[in-house]
Amino acid sequence: MKKGLTPLISTILLLGFALGLGMLVISWGQARAPPAMCSGLSVVAVDSQPQLCVKEGRLYGLLENTGDAPITRVQATMLMQDGVLTEDLDLVIQPGSFSQVWFSSTISSDVQKVRLVPSTAAGLCVEGKIDADFVGDC
Predict the structure, then answer these.
(1) Residue ranges per domain, the chain?
(2) Fewest C-beta atoms under 10 Å: which of 2, 21, 53, 112?
């Protein structure tokens, strides 16, 4: 009976050691992975007026990259009385820089809310989004 129990105990100890070592290697690898680069976005205000408005039936904005990575795309979602319109705009805004943006979609009704979500080379930065209510005419 003792001859069969000793290999079983050593097998269990070896499996426990291997699992512990594997968990240690995985946690070390996750700690060494570079953080995802994400950027924030803000609407620039001139004379206390946010520069996000509708002009000639199109959404216009003056945006600033407040993050550490270049913004390569901005996704605009506009909530209007007659539905929701989403448009992607390819552009490059370097960290700390400003950019004027014109979205090409024609807006046919009053814009009630706009959500702008920046993207970087790492992907969509949902935590860097901005929401604007009651966007008026320029």
Answers:
(1) 1-33, 41-135
(2) 2
* Contact between 63 and 95 (Cβ < 8 Å): no
**Per residue in 12-54, pLDDT tens?**
888 888 888 888 888 877 666 555 577 788 888 888 777 888 8
Helices (H), the chain: 2-32
Residue-level pLDDT at 31: 66
The residue among 119, 112, 116 whose CA lies nearest residue 131 is 116
**pLDDT digits 0-9 by tens, 46-64:** 887 778 888 888 888 889 9
Rounded distance between C-alpha atoms, residue 69 and residue 40, angstroms = 9
Residue with tokens 């968990």: 23
What residue has token string 């966007």? 135
Query: 41-135: what fold?
Result: Immunoglobulin-like (2.60.40)
